[in-house]
């Protein structure tokens, strides 16, 4: 009996992890101040609107734990003034699927670090890492560990970063 | 990799447990807005429409990283081993938990692509194509881009190949060493830094790119150009 209860969340978490990692954003953008992207006009091209219409037809509602919710085109709430460059008026809404409660997969909020010689005890030479350098300060994050946590909230050389997988 | 600062304010992110087209949705703990990881953009909540600043990062092996940056720190991962829970998923034919939203048979669903979107124009560079052609000079949304693929580690970086008023054309690629046709300078393909020649010391700007399974990328960008496959 007890086993059954454990199995369901385990499957859900497993399924979510697999799905979530379907895409991993590899970094990018200019290391310098100059912004390479011209003021990003329509980040979500009109094509995404088409994309949104299809899913209902195609996506099976397999898991009973799934609940879909349509993102409502809620008017931008008062008081919040997003960055000018960041606002995209032509925004399209996406179908959002809920698989797990918030934080069922725990992000890392207080990452601890090792020197390279110490890390050799945990990392094999051919282990994949995601690396960053800011102001000469370098940090490496194990990709397989990122797979299990998805997000690391970190600060490197005073810069607040979210390492995502 | 994103900045957690928006207009000088610090945010931190958690895993929402939600997906958009099979791709991770994050949330920020300060406003509870939902953020698409692929787009780097809030899709619901008070910050909806806001974009996070992309930051450059690199993907390589621990040995290579340590050789480049001996003073590096590394995330303490305890002794749980480096088993990757996605290992079998990478190879299986199954896609996300909800299945594909759009069927597009131009490429095997689980093939990795490097995705680039500039000025509303999306382009995808499949690993199978990059494997044969690890250096690509292309133009996406009017931006001259350079895609450099590291066969050994299966990772790619994208740069803007415009430097000052000059557009450079790159060739080479063995051991990530590139040469530009215009000046004959030598470049390190991982960092986009000219190591010798007339342009020594110059650094190419990074262009936002995403490593994604093909099915994830084309669900977000159904009309994407597929480099090396499309006529």
Structural commentary:
The complex is a heterodimer of chains A (165) and B (231). Chain A is an alpha+beta fold. Chain A contains five helices and eight strands. In chain A, the strands form three sheets. In chain A, strands 2-3 form a two-stranded antiparallel sheet. Chain A has a two-stranded antiparallel ribbon with strand order 5-6. A two-stranded antiparallel sheet of chain A has the order 7-8. In chain A, β5 (128-134) and β6 (137-142) form a beta hairpin. The longest helix of chain A is centred in the first third of the chain and has 19 residues, at 2-20. The radius of gyration of chain A is 20 Å and the shape is globular. Chain A starts with a helix and ends with a strand. By secondary structure, chain B is mainly beta. Chain B is built from four helices and 23 strands. Chain B has helices at 62-68, 87-91, 127-132, 214-220, and strands spanning 2-3, 5-6, 9-10, 13-20, 23-28, 34-36, 41-44, 58-61, 73-75, 112-118, 121-126, 135-140, 143-150, 155-160, 162-163, 166-167, 170-172, 177-180, 186-188, 193-196, 205-206, 209-213, 225-226. A four-stranded antiparallel β-sheet of chain B has the order 4-5-6-7, with no helix packed on it. In chain B, strands 22-10-11-23 form a four-stranded mixed β-sheet. Chain B has a four-stranded antiparallel β-sheet with strand order 12-13-14-21. Chain B starts with a strand and ends in a 5-residue tail after the last strand. At the A-B interface, α1, β1, α2, β3 and β4 of A face β1, β2, β4, β5 and β7 of B. β8 of chain A pairs antiparallel with β1 (2-3) of chain B.
Could you give me the name of the CATH homologous superfamily of the largest domain in chain B?
Rieske [2Fe-2S] iron-sulphur domain
- Determine the structural class of chain B based on helices, strands and strand pairing: mainly beta
Looking at the overall shape, the CATH architecture of the largest domain in chain B is 3-layer Sandwich
> End-to-end distance of chain A, in Å?
35 Å
- Give the ordered list of helices and strands of chain B: EEEEEEEEHEHEEHEEEEEEEEEEEHE
Beta-strand percent range of chain A: 15-25%
């Amino acid at each position: 009996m007890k086993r059954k209860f454990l199995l369901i969340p385990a499957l859900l978490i497993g399924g979510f992890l697999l799905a979530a990692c379907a895409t991993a954003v590899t970094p990018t953008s200019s290391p310098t101040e100059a912004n390479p992207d011209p003021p990003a006009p329509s980040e979500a091209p009109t094509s995404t609107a088409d994309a949104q219409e299809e899913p209902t037809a195609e996506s099976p509602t397999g898991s009973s734990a799934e609940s879909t919710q349509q993102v409502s085109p809620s008017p931008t709430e008062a008081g919040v003034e997003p960055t000018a460059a960041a606002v995209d008026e032509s925004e399209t809404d996406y179908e959002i699927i809920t698989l797990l409660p918030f934080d069922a997969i725990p992000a890392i909020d207080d990452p601890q670090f090792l020197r390279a010689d110490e890390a050799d005890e945990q990392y094999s030479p051919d282990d994949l890492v995601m690396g960053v350098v800011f102001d000469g300060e370098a940090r490496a994050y194990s990709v397989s560990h990122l797979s299990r946590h998805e997000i690391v909230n970190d600060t490197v050389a005073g810069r607040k970063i979210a390492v995502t997988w | 990799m994103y900045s957690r600062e928006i207009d000088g304010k610090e945010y931190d992110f958690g895993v929402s447990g939600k997906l958009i087209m099979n791709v991770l949705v994050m949330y920020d703990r300060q406003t509870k807005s939902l953020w698409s990881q692929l787009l780097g953009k809030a899709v619901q909540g008070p910050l909806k429409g806001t974009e996070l600043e992309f930051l450059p990062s690199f993907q390589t092996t621990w040995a290579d990283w340590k050789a480049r940056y001996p003073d590096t720190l590394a995330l303490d991962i305890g002794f749980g081993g480096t088993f990757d829970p996605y290992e079998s998923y990478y190879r299986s034919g199954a896609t996300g938990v909800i299945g594909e939203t759009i069927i597009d048979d131009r490429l095997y669903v689980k093939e990795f692509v490097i995705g680039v979107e500039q000025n509303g124009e999306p382009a995808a560079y499949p690993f199978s194509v990059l494997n044969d052609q690890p250096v690509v000079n292309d133009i996406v949304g009017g931006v001259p881009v350079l895609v450099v693929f590291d066969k050994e580690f299966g990772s790619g970086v994208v740069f803007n190949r415009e430097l000052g008023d000059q557009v450079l054309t790159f060739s080479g690629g063995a051991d990530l060493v590139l040469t530009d046709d215009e000046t004959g300078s030598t470049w390190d393909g991982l960092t986009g830094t000219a190591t010798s020649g007339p342009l020594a010391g110059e650094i190419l700007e990074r262009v936002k790119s995403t490593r994604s399974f093909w099915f994830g990328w084309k669900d977000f960008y159904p009309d994407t150009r597929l480099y090396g496959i499309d006529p």
